[in-house]
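User:
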Amino acid sequence: MEFCKTALPTLFSVHTAVTFYHIDMENHKPLGDWHPFPELIYVDEGENRVLVDGKLFFLQEGQALIYPPNAYHIGAGPSNAVLDIVSFESNCPWISELYNRVLTLDASDRRLLSRILHAGLVHFTEITPETNLKGLTPKNDTSPLDLMALKNNLELLLINLYKKLDRNEETVRAASNSANFKEEQFFLVTKYLKKNLGKVLTLEEIAAANRLSVSQLKYAFRAQIGCGPLSYFLSLKIGAAKNLIEDTALTFTEISDRLGFSSIHYFSKLFKEKTGLTPTEYAKTVNKA
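Assistant: Predicted structure:
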């Protein structure tokens, strides 16, 4: 008699570990970053605001966010958060549904993340500078079994988060509604800015269009994300520029003109400041010459 055999699918597969960090943000100045792999940040203590390609996310204690590959992210103002950060690579298409969602971790998820982070901190060390690489590498005494356990725990965490997507969104909406700390003005302005990415706007024009004084406008942005409206507007433009480089055949000059930059030189300079790469270098990372 033959046995019935069930093939087991591989829906979430993590094939590469990149970084593991436990960081107190009070001791770190927010710096913009991007990289060609996903990164999970979890708020272990406090609360944290972050801009991802110009979109604001507010994370409270117990919540996580996964940045997509090549997303420009930067802390939005001073933070009192203690963050756990894990970055990795996965070829699984399902993982894209977890990107840029505020995810609330339950006790089981937190235990998994604790095991993942502990394994990363114990078994990995900073790579030596002479390799011309950055990041972490396994220590000499790390066994394949240690790495396999890390892989399995990370895949299980991603599965758990995927299974509760709808519940996470309901939790986030409820928290947002209960907080309601003058976000309406801020989001009305950001909506206006997103609709006018091709323009050159002054503080006075932004304030007038949204029936605010300049001081009210500045206060709304400082209170919400810790930076000024024009700085936020430029972040939106850079995020839009990245999308245009990735998804269109427009030249850099055409992208610069479409987004209202005064010249291709200013556009290139600002793009380099915000992303660490020139537009040409960024295009190469997304396989577009």
